[in-house]
Amino acid sequence: AVNPDVGLVHVHQCDIYGNARCFGPGVSPLETAMASKRTIISTEEIITTDDIRKEPSKTTIPYYMVDAVVYAPFGSLPGGTQGLYEMDIPHFLEFMGASRDEQKMAAYLDKYVYSVASHEEFLDKRVGMARLLELKRQATIKEGYH
């Protein structure tokens, strides 16, 4: 069994306490939270706890499995988030190519991680609004609800 020290799960919506919602098929978000010693939720949108209470059946991961919540719009990049934005395939292929070589990965991390001061700066300088809007335009949700 795999039991990571820290699991990072990106979701569509979450309240400040960690009640998280994933719409459509995901990559085992609940199982990741259950298996991890600590769980960090990054979310596209912070919603109110009242919203969670109105539709509790939409909660994928309950608060008691969560240690921290981070607001991170476009936080799946270069991956996608169902119904919100598609995967940035050229960027993903760049990442995959870099992951096979230590020097290429160092250059990738310098370009996309270490050379920007924040997530917002990464989105602005390394992705750009036009690309973000295009990824949003391409979005679909294949099953589930939204």
TrEMBL record:
Q: What is this protein called?
A: CoA transferase subunit A
Q: What InterPro entries does its record include?
A: CoA_trans_fam_I, NagB/RpiA_transferase-like
The record's GO molecular-function terms, alphabetically, read: transferase activity
| Gene3D superfamilies documented for this protein | Glutaconate Coenzyme A-transferase
Q: Is Transferase set as a keyword in this record?
A: yes
Q: Which keywords does this chain's UniProt record carry? A: Transferase
Keyword Membrane: yes or no?
A: no
